[in-house]
């Protein structure tokens, strides 16, 4: 049995793939979401995995002792930690964005095998409940020390590509150094990444340069030019999850993807005028 805590786009996709591969899965959700999934199941429309439906077991709390994958957003972690702490899963794999949550996960699950990983995917749970996965990739990244996790083997058996290399710190920062500018620029511009990069090129470069400097100071050497090239390679019409959450009026992961970077920059005496401008502008829209 595996608990999937947070059946949004990421959690819904992973739960459905695991169930299709023969795993017993319990989806842990808030009451309204649990009721809907219990009635309708999970339907996936994926460019990579095809279209299929599954009917998961649904619960409001995790199964005691069962391995758990945490796929809530940063702002939802505090809501699920108490029940997870009671359940004490034998293994925990957290796939949250950012880095600020990592120490908490290890503190709460100090009696478990716990890992903070990342996932590279474009997926959303639409208002009609369908898990929409329009791309042909879904890559979970974990540290080399988590390579033998039962959860890692289960995900691979379900068809998910899992890369196990480096340290946990490197895994989280490799995603954050890309996701932060992608999320902040699209949210600041309220526009897809192509338009956001082109609207004020000097501002965009300045923001990316600050993120690269912070990542480098945190131990992951990062080139501004390469990071800009990676952003430019994203389909021009792509939005970020943060930008869509801001449009809806929140809640958002702005603290994890913006404020925390500015805080860490201060620890390294790195000036962040562009990051601060973007975060303040986004915050003003949410006020």
What string, H for helix and E for strand, traces the elements in order? Answer: EHEHEEEEHEHEEEEEHEHHHHHHH
**CATH class designation of the largest domain:** Alpha Beta
What is the rounded Rg?
19 Å
Number of domains: 2
Q: Kindly state the number of beta strands.
A: 13
Estimated helix fraction: 40-55%
Low-confidence stretches: none
Strand content: 15-25%
Specify the number of helices. 12
Cα separation of the termini: 42 Å
The fold-level CATH name of the largest domain is Rossmann fold
Oligomer: single chain
Mean pLDDT: 96
* CATH superfamily annotation of the largest domain: NAD(P)-binding Rossmann-like Domain
Main pleated sheet: 6 strands, parallel
In spatial order, strands of the major sheet run 5-2-1-6-7-8
Task: Note the overall shape.
Answer: globular
Helix/strand-derived class? alpha/beta
Structural summary, described in words:
Helix 8 packs across helix 12 and helix 11 (254-267) runs antiparallel to helix 12 (273-286). The longest helix has 22 residues, at 168-189. Helix 5 links the parallel strand 12 and strand 13. The chain has two domains: 2-166, NAD(P)-binding Rossmann-like Domain (Rossmann fold, 3-Layer(aba) Sandwich), CATH 3.40.50.720; 170-286, N-(1-d-carboxylethyl)-l-norvaline Dehydrogenase, domain 2. It is of the alpha/beta class. 48% of the residues lie in helices and 17% in strands. The chain has helices at residues 9-20, 31-40, 77-87, 102-108, 150-157, 168-189, 193-199, 201-217, 224-232, 241-247, 254-267, 273-286; strands at residues 2-5, 25-28, 42-46, 50-54, 57-59, 68-70, 91-94, 113-116, 118-120, 124-125, 131-133, 139-142, 161-164.
């Amino acid at each position: 049995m595996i608990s999937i805590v947070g059946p949004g786009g990421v959690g819904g996709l992973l739960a459905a793939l695991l169930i299709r591969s023969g795993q017993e899965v319990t989806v842990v959700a808030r009451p309204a979401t649990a009721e809907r999934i219990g009635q309708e199941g999970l339907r996936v429309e994926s460019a990579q995995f095809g279209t299929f439906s599954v009917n998961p077991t649904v619960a409001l709390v995790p199964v005691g002792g069962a391995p758990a994958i945490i796929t809530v957003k940063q702002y939802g972690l505090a809501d699920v930690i108490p029940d997870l702490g009671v359940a004490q899963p034998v293994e925990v794999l957290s796939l949250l964005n950012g880095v600020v949550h990592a120490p908490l996960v290890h503190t709460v699950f100090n009696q478990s095998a716990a890992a903070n990983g990342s996932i590279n995917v474009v997926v959303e749970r639409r208002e009609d409940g369908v898990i929409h996965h329009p791309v042909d990739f879904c890559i979970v990244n974990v540290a080399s020390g988590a390579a033998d996790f039962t959860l890692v083997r289960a995900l691979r058996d379900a068809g998910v590509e899992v890369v196990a290399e480096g340290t946990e710190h490197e895994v989280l920062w490799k995603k954050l150094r890309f996701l932060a500018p992608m999320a902040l620029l699209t949210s600041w511009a309220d526009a897809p990444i192509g338009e956001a990069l082109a609207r004020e090129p000097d501002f965009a470069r300045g923001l990316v340069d600050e993120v690269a400097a912070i990542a480098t100071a945190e131990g992951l050497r990062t080139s501004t030019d390469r990071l800009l090239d990676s952003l430019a390679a994203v389909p021009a019409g792509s939005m970020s999850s943060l930008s869509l959450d801001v449009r809806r009026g929140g809640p958002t992961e702005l603290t994890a993807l913006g404020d925390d970077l500015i805080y860490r920059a201060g620890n390294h005496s790195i000036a962040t005028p562009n990051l601060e401008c973007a975060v303040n502008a986004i915050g003003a829209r949410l006020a």
